[in-house]
Specification:
It contains 19 helices and ten strands. The protein is an alpha+beta fold. Helix 1 crosses helix 4, helix 3 runs antiparallel to helix 4 and helix 7 packs antiparallel against helix 8.
Length: about 400
């Protein structure tokens, strides 16, 4: 869930609350039907936004204001929280520090389509809000953090905690306790199809990959091993490796052609032991899949900062630079982790614009042979923003690529 970072919130005045109710009441005129503050009303507005998108229509500013007011009050009624402003944007702020930007999510649906629907986002927040109030979830999450920071870090123990969090995600989605079995894998598949194309699912993907991996281990045996470039694999008999994250990504990218429930159902000890180990190409693909998910997570975060939907392009890089300059003098709990995350976003912008892939050293090998180090560039802007910045690197790439040296 989205958590507060570099936002300045203020509560609504009584006058602003009255105006919010008045604006919300206009939603029924816009949609031409009675509107009830609840999930039914959210679904009606979701369908209306899809109609606008399909007809290439444009909403008037007054309509958006009324729809935003209705969604804000409806989500507040469903999930609770505090109604606040961030500058001019209505926000619902939750005790956990999570927040909900109604206008941003409506805009996201209009620009990205039904996979990013407002209705899905509210459902996702609803079950995540319930999950994060769960005392057991908090305990497991705290244990996971402690294990990650421990000097006696053990990959099997760490991944088992991740798998348990993944199990709790799937249980919250299913509305019942699930196990590490075939039914659990089927429900995880449904979860992926429902939510994974929404932004901000990077961490969820890690937990669901761990959940799938633990289901495989309990079915055919094996153990977790630390692979190259932070990739977690399962080692089974005779040293063969499986990569659950690749399986989850295939479900996300290629359903229904690829699905984890079919793979799991057909998997047995004999098949697993005959499976070829990961090739160097498969390992590299696993790295690039991981980078794609992490980049989406950062794009989501930067879009919140920009208060607009960003893409992996020059505008995204410009906002990345602004964000770095905004936070560079502030205390950052995990500075190296933040540099890596922002560098992955920059790398994705480079790949999306100029072509290329991540290589084994976590540099970007750009089509044509040039190698860029986006993670290193992030650190340079943090330390010397006037001398080094990500925009300069991004804009320099086509110039360098057209240099005589590269055109030979």
């Amino acid at each position: 869930m989205d958590t507060t970072q570099n936002f300045q919130f203020r509560p609504l005045s009584e006058k602003e609350k009255e105006q919010l109710v008045t604006d919300s009441g206009k939603a029924k005129q816009i949609l031409g039907k009675e509107m009830v503050l609840g999930m039914a009303g959210i679904l009606s507005i979701t369908d209306y936004l899809e109609t606008i998108k399909a007809e290439n229509d444009e909403t008037k500013e007054g309509e958006i204001q009324s729809l935003n007011a209705f969604v804000t009050l409806a989500v507040h009624k469903i999930l609770g929280g505090e109604l606040v402003f961030n500058e001019d944007d209505l926000v619902i702020l939750f005790p956990s520090g999570a927040y909900f930007f109604p206008l941003y999510y409506m805009t996201l649906q209009l620009e990205e389509g039904p996979d990013f629907s407002l209705y899905k986002k509210v459902i996702y927040f609803q079950f995540m809000n319930n999950l994060q109030r769960n005392g057991t979830y908090k305990s497991v999450a705290a244990s996971l953090t402690a294990k990650l920071n421990s000097t006696s870090y053990d990959v099997n123990e760490y991944m088992q905690y991740c798998a348990e969090l993944g199990r709790m995600y799937v249980s919250a989605y299913a509305g019942k306790e699930v196990a590490f079995d075939e039914e659990g894998v089927l429900l995880a598949e449904q979860f992926i199809n429902m939510f994974f194309k929404m932004e901000g699912a990077g961490l969820t993907k890690e937990y669901l990959s761990a959940f799938l991996g633990e289901c495989i281990i309990r079915k055919v045996g094996g153990l977790w091993v630390e692979g190259e470039y932070l990739i977690k694999n399962i080692q089974i008999k005779d040293g063969y490796l499986l990569n659950p994250a690749n399986l989850v990504f295939s479900q996300y990218a290629s359903a229904p052609l690829e699905n984890i429930s079919k793979y799991f159902k057909e998997l047995n000890s004999a098949d697993a032991h005959k499976k070829e180990s990961l090739t160097p190409l498969e390992r590299l693909e696993a790295v690039n899949h991981q980078m794609d998910f992490l980049a989406e997570n950062v794009r989501y975060r930067l879009s919140q900062y920009a208060r607009k939907v960003l893409a992996f392009n020059e505008e995204g890089v410009i906002w990345l630079s602004k964000y770095i300059n905004h936070i560079r003098t502030q205390p950052i709990e995990n500075e190296k982790g933040e540099w890596n995350a922002l560098g992955i976003f920059l790398g994705k912008c480079i790949i999306s614009t100029y072509g290329g892939v991540w290589n084994s050293e976590l540099n970007v090998l750009i089509d044509g042979g040039m190698v860029a180090n986006p993670i290193g560039k992030i650190g340079k802007q943090f330390n010397s923003p006037d001398e080094d910045n990500v925009i300069a690197l991004f804009k320099a790439i086509p110039i360098i690529m057209n240099d005589e040296y590269f055109s030979k």
